[in-house]
Amino acid sequence: MADLLRRPFGTHGKVHEITPASAGWRHVGFSLYRLRAGERAAETTGGNEVILVMVEGRAALSGARQDWGVLGERMDVFEKTPPHCLYLPDGCGWEATAETDCTIAVCAAPGRGGHGPRRIGPDGITLTARGQGTNTRHINNIAMEAEDYADSLLVTEVFTPAGHWSSYPSHRHDEDDFPRITYLEETYYHRLNPASGFGIQRVYTDDGSLDETMAVHDGDVVLVPRGHHPCGAPYGFEMYYLNVMAGPRRKWRFVPAPEVEWIMKRDA
Question: What domain range is 206 assigned to?
């Protein structure tokens, strides 16, 4: 079985740390801190650029030799309000001191020094609907292709209503053949509401060489090294996920799974 499902290794402090080496790929890194009020986290970006996402709570942030003040407004991610985020280039340090209990995601990918540090959101981030019927979900684009904020990173939040599917119709982005398709590694950081629930994520290739279906719980991370990767939220439980993507080209181009291509053509 592929090691695609990563459970948090604690409930406090740094609870996830996924590196290219631990994931078996080349581009995406993802870490997560759960801090209590007054606690501190600090790192250096090294050769990576980083987007810090205030998933929940408030923290005083400094980075790249600047004081960015207190970032964060939503106390519960399922408020669905736009997040406060901070972009930092490679080769700098950052520090966060929690003003309240908070959850901070650290999204990382190789940096090339092409962008300076900047705040991202909440201004300019608008919750938008995508899909139709029980494929409807709602998106907070943090730093996707239209936002020229980063060298490599593509980052977005997705809220999937109870009983709906997401990252569906199934699609893949695992070849570097632009403009038909781009190679992008991806992580999914999942949350459930109520937190006692579960969701489903499948990661599979057309030839069946990879085919894993996982029950994801509140706080889990799923790795998508290749293949299609749809999610399902059971009736009674909302699903949130934070996506981090990166590859050799900062473009998001995908190919649908053959069995669902007709749905994409119908809904286009």
Answer: 9-267
